Amino acid sequence: MFTVLNAQMSNEDMPNENETQSFVAVQGFTISSLGDFSEDWDEGKGGYVSYGIIYSNNWSLIFQTGYITFETNDNAPFIGDAKFNMIPLMVGTRYYILRDRFRPFLLAMNGINIISTDYSIERPGIPPSIEMREGTEVKYNFQVGLGLGIIVYKGLEVEFQAKYNSHLLESSIPYNITGTELGVAINWNF
After folding, report:
1. How many whole angstroms separate alpha carbon 78 and alpha carbon 1?
2. Residue-number span of the structural domain to which 143 is assigned
3. pTM to 2 decimals?
4. I need a surface site. Which of 2, 56, 110, 185 has the fewest CB within 10 A?
5. What does the alpha-carbon distance between residue 177 and residue 28 come to, in Å, rounded to a whole number?
6. What are the tens digits of pLDDT across the range 7-35?
C-alpha cells in the first residue's frame, strides 16, 4: 500500500520544480532566550502566518506576520504582572536546495517588531531602583536559519524550522532579544 501511495504522489501530486509556486503557511514556534534578555524573560512562544512565492530558480520571496509573547524568568524581580509581546512584520527569502517531496532550505528574514511592554522590575543597587516600562515601540529584527519541508499529500506540506533571531531593542545597551527559534508549520502550496 505504501509503495502505491508513494508512486502516486511522485507522479501526480509533486510540484514541478520548473514552475513558480505560491504557499500560505501557519506556524507555531518557541524561542529560547539567550544573553542579558534571558535574565528577565525566559521563553517566547507564538505563531506566524506567511505568504510566499517560490520561483523556478529555487529562490522564494516571503511575507510574514505573527504574534510573540514572552514568559518571565522566575528569578527576575518583577513587581506584579509583567507583559512583553511583539507583532513581527517581516519580509525575507529562502533558497530551496531541493524541490521534491523533501524540501530542505536556507532562510533569511528581515523586518520590524511592534513591541508592547508593561512591567515594573526592581534593580539591585544602593538604593535599589525600580525600572518601569509601559508602551509600544517599533524595533528592527532579523532571522537566519534552515528548514525542511515534507509534502505529505498534494499541496499539503509539513515544515520544520530552526532559526537564530535577533530583535534589536536598545542600540545604546546590549539588551537585545536573541535566541534560537524552533517551529513547525503547515503549508498549503498552490
Report:
1. 58
2. 2-189
3. 0.83
4. 2
5. 18
6. 445 545 566 667 899 999 999 999 998 87
